[in-house]
Amino acid sequence: MGVARRVASVSAVLAVDLGGTNMRVAIVAADGTILGRRTEPTPKGDQRPTAFLSLIGAELRGTVAVEAGVDHAVIGMPGRIDHRAGVLEMAPNLPKSWVPALNERALEAALHVDVLLANDADLAAVGEAYFGAGRGRDDVAYVTLSTGVGAGVVLNGKIVHGRRSMAELGHTIIDIAAARRDDLLHATVENLGSGTALGRNAAEAGLGVTGRALVELVRRGDPAATAVFDRTVEAAAVGITNLCHLFSPEIVVIGGGLGRNGSLVLDPIRAVIARFGPVGLTEPIDVAEAALGDDAALIGGAAWRRAT
Hints:
Elements (H helix, E strand, L loop, with lengths): L12 E6 L3 E7 L5 E8 L8 H12 L1 H6 L3 E6 L2 E3 L4 E4 L13 H8 L2 E6 H12 L8 E6 L3 E7 L2 E2 L16 H5 L8 H5 L1 H10 L6 H9 L3 H25 L3 E5 L7 H14 L9 E4 L6 H5 L3 H4 L1
Parallel strand pairs: 1-4, 4-7, 8-11, 11-12
Antiparallel strand pairs: 1-2, 2-3, 5-6, 8-9, 9-10
Helix pairs in contact: 7-9, 8-9, 9-10
């Protein structure tokens, strides 16, 4: 039975995607439809998450939330979650002073609704598995290639985690020689295969361009830009292949600013999985671009209870 067919009737949810750059809040119906949303920049200079709580509170008090019957909130955090304790343990891209306040008990007291914390990549994985590119599959791995590298895995329709959130793909080591030199900048999937790595590699190659401008050079066939791009994506592909060995998903969904570049990214990932990935599968592991874009984590809130 596919994931898309395991849908129960549940109330709308207030879903939150708290990032280092933006705070995004939405009211999401049980079918994944976003009914209303608010977005504000993350105030990194603030010592307390006051603006964050105000943003959520404003959405909860709004007409859309009241009419939709919101009865709980799912809050995606850019860090490691202790699900047993209901706390955010660490989040490198948020102010350190925020972390102690970002726990389920404190948030429930402030917001007056039930609160569930989730790792943001896990939440996006659920979104893509239930409503996006992985819909209809039981076993889905989601990987975001962006400023960093994150991943979430859904097996038999359930998000994979133990006491803590897991599948921290970006921090896994793929260059042991660099690690032995204590050179983690050139050892991990994130530091070799992310958008940040792409920009650093481009600068080291003297290209003078990053982001979309660099991708455009690759599309035009510029050899220097292509070499930098291919090296970065290959590193990401090696990490993704390791993820395939660990979880044997039916499909790997690729999202993020770097990840959503179509065949430029998908084809090299497919090639590395085909060469080095699991062998003897009755069906090869599919690789697809994320269908929900930046909304994957918000939409994932609609199915989080079902997926945990």
